[in-house]
Amino acid sequence: MIGCKKDKDSSSKINEIAGYWDRRTLNTTTQNYFVEQFQFNTNGSYSHIYSIHDKATFLLLGYSGISSGRFKIENQTILLYDGESYNKNSTDEYVPQSSLTKVQSVDVTAQYSVDNKKGTLSLTYNCPPNADCVGTTNFNRSMAVDKYK
Q1: Tens digit of pLDDT for each residue in 54-77?
Q2: In degrees, to the nearest 5, what angle opens at C-alpha 113 toward C-alphas 140 and 66?
Q3: Domain of life, per the record (predicted)?
């Protein structure tokens, strides 16, 4: 099969980020962990999960949001598109997955990099005008949220 260099470059970049990536933050008020996790698949699909876990056991308590869709990579830019998003519709810290409500999904673009050891994924989201953006967010290679014990 004959392919072009651009196809091979894109494929190697997809393989570089394929798998699970997460970041964890301790909520000092509730003493629960907030986990934001991406799963990038080699077929170009992704899932993005916001979940809450017990501090002592790290058992999954519930969700604050879930999205999934397609992604593509060009140079050092990743585009998340054709997504479907669900968020909690309450002031509760978390809800069961079945209680998440479908919301309008928007395409998201970010600059990305993976460190030399392939253990940290950095995303810097393109910030629209008049928005309050967080800057670069780092994710560590991990396992699936529902596999945490």
Answers
A1: 999 999 999 999 999 999 999 999
A2: 55
A3: Bacteria
